């Protein structure tokens, strides 16, 4: 967790002069867009993604698939339907080079795709990508028949020597450091000769909604998937080999990226409407309805979207976030402004996210006068009056949005490298000032 010396720009986080009252159109989900791209690339016919997220992580995914030979055409649909991407699957070819940036979805979901290519595919990325766990994918692919050159650390950089096909079959992995290991193997599973049976052997498994999203989207393109929830064995997922359909999919708004805007209503006692909030979704951000209600707000899901209202009071919370880890920075920011202490649990794996999120949140909130301590698997947050100062982001988009939440009620917060929000929400500064009516 080091401050990036290349990023000295400081963004004065806007201070809210009163209760916010805004409608915020949140761009598409990163997790849905990148799964949809992979599934469309592996399909046996062209497909469409409407309102895809255009951000660093999704453009890296699209760029990588193009490098492997997949056609991705971009366009704008008729009035009101927004942008679309048309994905035209093709034979997957190496040699190719993939830049994963610091995108967990790209570094985990694409090595199994590369194993199906007909030549070597080299994976590289940001310095932080070398530290993020990948052993679950590398070891599993070797068991399933792939040849991979790496430096033995179970991490990037590496080369997958695709041979045009992969045997597949049963494999055991420990996915306690990232659910994306499971998702990665399942997404390409229909294209393995024997399909895949993934058995998770670790003691914990984070981010279950994201695994459900993978299963749901696989079924949506015609794959047969057996899961623990559909009567299978606990911790075992089975994907049958078979062709995938091309789909016409409209991407839901990113509910985790809706978080700072909902938080704005909560901490200012205001009101925010997020249009197109899905009535049914696998996105973990949907849990915010419950979490932010417990922290003092109230919400109503209507045909227009989610209307979230702050009461003026912000309460602490004791909550297990293991299923929804990516919400932790935003919840920690709200908790630092609450009227009682909070305990956030079940998120030890966040130490290996974009940055060590537990250390980064502790340090940055405490430097504004807060009282946060790290626990073995989370944070203990005792609210104290905060003051302005620099909020470092460590190349982590969710640190930047967490700092912005605090800046709404604490004057003089300056966010270092707010541009890091481009990972999943390039328009964040404009959406944020727009919400405040600036
Ligand atoms: O599959 C996905 O789209 C994601 C899974 C989660 O990863 P971990 O299980 O590694 O936390 C989540 O934190 C990440 O933002 C997106
Ligand atoms: C953990 C995250 O991303 P990634 O997909 O890179 O793991 C995140 O977006 O909070």
TrEMBL record:
InterPro entries documented for this protein: Enolpyruvate_Tfrase_dom (IPR001986), Enolpyruvate_Tfrase_sf (IPR036968), EPSP_synthase (IPR006264), EPSP_synthase_CS (IPR023193), RNA3'P_cycl/enolpyr_Trfase_a/b (IPR013792)
UniProt KW Amino-acid biosynthesis keyword: yes
Enzyme Commission number: 2.5.1.19
Pfam families in alphabetical order: EPSP_synthase
Keywords: Amino-acid biosynthesis, Aromatic amino acid biosynthesis, Cytoplasm, Transferase
Active-site residues per Swiss-Prot or TrEMBL entry: 326 (proton acceptor)
Coiled-coil positions: none
GO MF terms held by the record: 3-phosphoshikimate 1-carboxyvinyltransferase activity
Record text on subunit structure and interactions: Monomer.
Name of the protein described by the UniProt record: 3-phosphoshikimate 1-carboxyvinyltransferase
Taxonomic source organism: Streptomyces fumanus
Lineage, broadest ranks: Bacteria, Bacillati, Actinomycetota, Actinomycetes, Kitasatosporales
């Amino acid at each position: 967790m080091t401050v990036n010396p290349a990023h000295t720009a400081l963004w004065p986080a806007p201070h809210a002069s009163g209760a916010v009252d805004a409608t915020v159109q949140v761009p598409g989900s990163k997790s849905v867009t990148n799964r949809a791209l992979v599934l469309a690339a592996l399909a046996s016919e062209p497909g469409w993604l409407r309102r895809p997220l255009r951000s660093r992580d999704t453009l890296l995914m699209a760029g990588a698939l193009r490098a492997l030979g997949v056609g991705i055409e971009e366009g704008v649909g008729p009035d009101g339907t927004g942008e679309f991407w048309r994905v035209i699957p093709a034979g997957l070819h190496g040699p190719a080079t993939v830049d994963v940036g610091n995108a967990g979805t790209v570094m985990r979901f694409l090595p199994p795709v590369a194993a199906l290519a007909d030549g070597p595919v080299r994976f590289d990325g940001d310095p932080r990508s070398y530290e993020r766990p990948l052993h679950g994918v590398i070891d599993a692919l070797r068991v399933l028949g792939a040849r991979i050159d790496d430096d033995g650390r179970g991490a990037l950089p590496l080369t997958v020597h695709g041979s045009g096909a992969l045997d597949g079959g049963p494999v055991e992995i420990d996915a306690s450091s990232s659910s994306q290991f499971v998702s990665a193997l399942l997404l390409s599973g229909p294209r393995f000769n024997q399909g895949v049976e993934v058995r998770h052997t670790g003691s914990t498994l984070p981010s279950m909604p994201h695994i459900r999203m993978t299963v749901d989207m696989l079924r949506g393109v015609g794959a047969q998937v057996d899961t623990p929830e559909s009567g299978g064995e606990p911790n075992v997922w089975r994907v049958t080999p078979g062709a995938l359909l091309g789909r016409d999919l409209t991407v839901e708004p990113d509910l985790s990226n809706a978080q700072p805007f909902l938080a704005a209503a909560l901490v200012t006692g205001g009101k925010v409407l997020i249009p197109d909030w899905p009535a049914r979704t696998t996105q973990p951000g949907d849990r915010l309805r419950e979490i932010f209600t417990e922290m003092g707000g109230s919400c109503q899901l209507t045909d227009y979207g989610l209307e979230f209202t702050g009461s003026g009071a912000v309460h602490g919370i004791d909550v297990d976030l293991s299923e929804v880890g990516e919400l932790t920075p935003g919840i920690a920011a709200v908790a630092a402004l609450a009227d009682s202490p909070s305990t956030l649990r079940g998120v030890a794996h966040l130490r290996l996210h974009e940055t060590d999120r537990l250390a980064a949140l502790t340090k940055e909130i405490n430097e504004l006068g807060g009282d946060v301590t790290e626990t073995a698997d989370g944070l203990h947050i005792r609210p104290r009056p905060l003051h302005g100062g620099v909020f470092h982001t460590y190349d982590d988009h969710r640190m930047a949005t967490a700092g912005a939440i605090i800046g709404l009620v604490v004057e003089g917060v300056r966010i270092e490298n707010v541009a890091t929000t481009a990972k999943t929400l390039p328009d964040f500064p404009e959406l944020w000032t727009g919400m405040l009516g600036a």
